[in-house]
Amino acid sequence: MTNLVLPFTGQSNWDNTLNTALTALNDGKADKTVINVIQDFGAKGDKITDDTLAIQSALNSALPGQNVLLPGSHATSAPLKIPPQVGLIGMHGAHIDTVTNPTIKPLASFSGAAVILLVDQATGGYSQTSTEQRIQNLTIDCSNLTGNTIDGIQAQGYVHGVYITDVSIQEAPNHGVTAASNASGSAYSWRAMRLHVTSPGGIGINASMTDSHWIDCEVIGGSSHGWFIAGAANSVFSLCKSEWSGLDGFNIGGTGTGQGSGQITFIGCTTDRNKNNGFSFPAAASGSAPIVLIGCTLRRDGSASASSGWAAININGATAPILIDGLSVYPGVNDDGTGINSPQYGISVSNATSVNYASAYLHAATAGFFDGGGNSTVRRGMNIQERTGTTSSPVPQVRGLQTYGTFGDSLDVPGHLAGMASPREYGAIGWSVHPEQVNGGQVLTIGSLYLAAVYVPRNTTATKLFWGTTTAGATPTSGQNFVGLYNSSGTLLVSVNVDARVPVSNGFFTESINVGVSPGVYWVAFLFNAATSPSVMRGPNINASLVNFNLSPASYRFATNGTGTALPATITPGSNTVSGFPLFAALA
How confident is the model at residue 400, as a pLDDT? Predict the structure, then answer.
């Protein structure tokens, strides 16, 4: 074979130079690497003349490692069968747009299972295993076809190691790409990159095969599921997309239980406006290996109904472990402003065996997360933001572990932490002592300023300050009895006169305030001037050094700070003195 030295002068010039060189190299040689169906087999490539026989003859004549080039726009009437280790390549694989000269445009008279058909060794009568077919740079326009049985690309039986690159399949009557098992086995270990399927009559891409990689592949406007993925253990789907499908965007099956099984991984995949769910994990999603979603963005799915339970991710009956991290769910209506705001739910989980999700933004019409019941294990991680309603008027919903703040993040726990009730469960922001630990009262020294720390876990507005007494005081000095709130810098944020509370026994009081607070420590202040001070609710008496151990004065939980007849505008936290009185106070 002639040796070629080709100068590189830019990608476009390189392509032209390469094509010219290959033509010269291949002209009349038995060892040609590219077979040109027009030059070598008399195909017309005019979109009118049936080129099926010419193309198939070229494919049948190709040796392993050779490529059959379709340089025109070729009409076909029967499936094109690609032998093992042979490539079928065109000049341009479209994205989602209609192109003037598609590579293959089947005639209305077309008859067969698929425009391109890959078959197993026995069916094809091959001398070797059916492997390593290459399909590249093709636009397949099926707009002439009718019915609902013809696929774009179909594999039958054991067809291994297929590569599909820069291929567009438009308006296939049935599935865009699919594979069917037979006695020889099943397709597996495929690689696809920039495969685009638009408006299929059935499933866009049936990727039900193991050990496969799909990169930047998309389905738009299908009548069924955008993707159907079953038995795809040890497969990766990266930057794949499903939009405007008639059913689910991605309908997922299982991973298997054998030692050779492995997880299915979705990385950076997206959905938009699929009629049912963005991702659906039904009971068929079984197996021991996990199904993992990382960094996926799911928008406006469930467009068919606002009340049927459709979700960006709907897990219903799945037994395979499902792990979700870095998910973004965003609702909306149609591009023209019509239609319903969907999805109804961000994540919906029912009758599932094991689901973990963390670090997610879940904005849905009704609820960011919905628990349909019957679940064995659902683990919710940290930093999940939930919103409901429309994109123009979102309503924040807060539950689960949250961290707040830019320095020394604060943990916010709605519900139970380590089996104990948290302030959130009481509708409170924070408290100095758990209510269940309050077991008595403490008579405070007249004129002394007492402080009880309350840790605020999130940005919010405090509208209530709670405290109480167990034994009444007597004869309060008018205008000299207060509770209030200081921030960590010692600035007085609010002061409430409580002269009327002093003579009340066994009183639990709610003071109305209106103070914006952010993550960090605040002190509720107590100051009484009366003939007899009331006994203020407290937790168990504790050694003053113990309750404040290893804290600096500016961080003491319970302290005193000077004396007076009114709460001073500022205090110096560094001047706090330890106190062994764990006084009860709470903010809400």
Answer: 62
The per-residue pLDDT of the chain, averaged, comes to 91
Spatial CA neighbour of 179 closest among 160, 200, 198? 160
Record the pTM.
0.74
* Token code pair at residue 280: 């659906």
Rounded CA-CA distance 565/148 in Å is: 88
User: How far is 291 from 285, CA to CA, in rounded Å?
Assistant: 9
Is 444:528 a contact under the CB 8 Å cutoff?
yes
Write the DSSP string, 354-386.
-EEEESEEEEESSEEEEEEE--S-EEE-S-EEE
- Residues 243, 133, 225, CA angle at the centre, nearest 5°? 20
**pLDDT number for residue 419:** 59
**What are phi and psi for residue 239, nearest 5 degrees?**
60, 30
- How many helices and strands in the chain, by DSSP H and E? 5, 53
Q: How far is CA 187 from CA 80, 116, 134, 199, 514, in A?
A: 18, 15, 14, 24, 66
Residue ranges for the chain with pLDDT beneath 70: 1-31, 398-420
Peptide bond into 343 cis (omega under 30): yes
Identify the three-state secondary structure at position 296. Answer: coil
* Cα 530 from Cα 583, distance rounded (Å): 19
Q: How far, CA to CA in Å, does 496 sit from each of 427, 465, 478?
A: 22, 10, 13
Look at the block and give the residue holding tokens 């997610």.
Answer: 360
506 Cβ contact partners less than 8 Å away, ≥ 6 residues apart: 468, 469, 470, 471
**Contact indicator for 82, 121 with CB cutoff of 8 Å:** no
Give the count of beta carbons closer than 10 Å to the beta carbon of residue 455.
17
d(CA 159, CA 122): 11
Whether the CB-CB separation of 291 and 284 falls below 8 Å is answered with: no
Closest CA to 99 of 90, 89, 108, 107: 90
Place of tokens 């167990």: 470
Q: What is the pLDDT of residue 28?
A: 45
d(CA 409, CA 402): 9
